Each structure stands twice: as C-alpha cells, then as structure tokens.
Amino acid sequence: MSVDTDEIAVNGKVKWFSRDKGYGFIHDPKSGVDRYFAVSDVVGADLPRDGDVVTFLATVGEKGPRATKIRIASAPLRATFHDQRADRHERHGHYRDDRVTCPSCNRRMVPRLVTYQGEAQKSLCPFCGATYRRFNTLQTAITITVAVIILMLFFFSR
Ligand SMILES: [Zn+2]
After folding, report:
1. C-alpha 58 to ligand 1 mean position (Å)
2. What predicted TM-score, i.e. pTM, was given to this entire model?
3. Contact status, residue 50 vs residue 16, Cβ threshold 8 Å
4. Domain 6-74, what fold?
C-alpha cells in the first residue's frame, strides 16, 4: 500500500455485471456516464451484482470511461427472506471450504475461475490478480511425462 488512492474513490451503482462474460458497467452519477469494468478490477472476494452500490476509481481505458478498484459498499435488499438466504449461501457458503493461501500475496482467498467458452482456463487471486492455477490438460500431461522420464533416467543410471 504505497499510494493511498482511496480518497478519490467515488460512489456508483452497478448497472449490470455478467459473471460469465467477466465484465460489466457501473453508472457514475458524478459524470453521468457508464463505466466499463472487468472482474480483475473488483477488490475483495465478493463479486458485485446488478444494483449494488460500489466505490471505485474513475479512469479512462481503451474502451472509454472505466472503473477500477471497485469495492462493494452495499447490496440492495433482496426480494424475500428466502432469496436473501439463498443469495448469502451462494456468495459466502463456499468460502469455508475452498479458501487457499495465495502464493503471491499470501492472503487467504477463494480462487476466482476464469472461463473461456465454458472451459475453465485458470483461477486468479481476487486480491492481487495473480494466477493461482492453470487448467491446461495438455500442459499437465507433458509435465507429468517429463517428470516420469527424468525419474526413470535417474534410477537407471545408478
Ligand atoms: Zn494474491
């Protein structure tokens, strides 16, 4: 935390966000524009939902107005008690079981899955964005084959 940028964070509302697509838009009432943001711009383990109030840093990216360092300030009240419980379960239920230590920032986190055309590509640390794991089956097969060959060479050379 060398630069404290929190003081210029502004409030906005999530217009829409797609977990599958990995991006969305935040309405910025200050400038009146909708700002593009990606999953990697979200700080913390929770992903925003449509209608959530968030704080963010307003910047300009390749695709125009952009929001970064997004933090969820408050989620709107869900329709019913049961919806709320289901929502809570979906958001927080898996944390207890799936938390791992990030090799990059050493924080306890749930790796965030990045998918491409329905296939899991890799998982990221939601705090620092470091790749936690890659799901490349061919690469894994090659790595195992090479390891086996090295082990065999080691044993047969003795
Ligand atoms: Zn990390």
Report:
1. 23
2. 0.45
3. yes
4. OB fold (Dihydrolipoamide Acetyltransferase, E2P) (2.40.50)
CA of 38 to the centre of ligand 1 (A): 17
Query: What distance in angstroms lies between residue 104's CA and the mean position of ligand 1's atoms?
Result: 5
Q: E-assigned strands of the chain? A: 10-18, 23-28, 33-38, 53-61, 64-74, 100-101, 108-109, 112-116, 119-124, 131-134
Helix locations, the chain, DSSP H: 81-92, 95-98, 137-156
Cα-to-centroid distance, 125 and ligand 1 (Å) = 5
State pLDDT tens for residues 85-126.
555 555 554 444 568 889 899 988 888 888 877 777 888 999
Domain boundaries, the chain: 6-74, 94-158
For 60-71, how does the pLDDT look when each residue is reduced to its tens digit (9 = 90+)? 988 799 999 999
Pairing state of beta strands 112-116 and 53-61?
unpaired
Ligand 1 geometric centre to CA of 54 (Å): 22
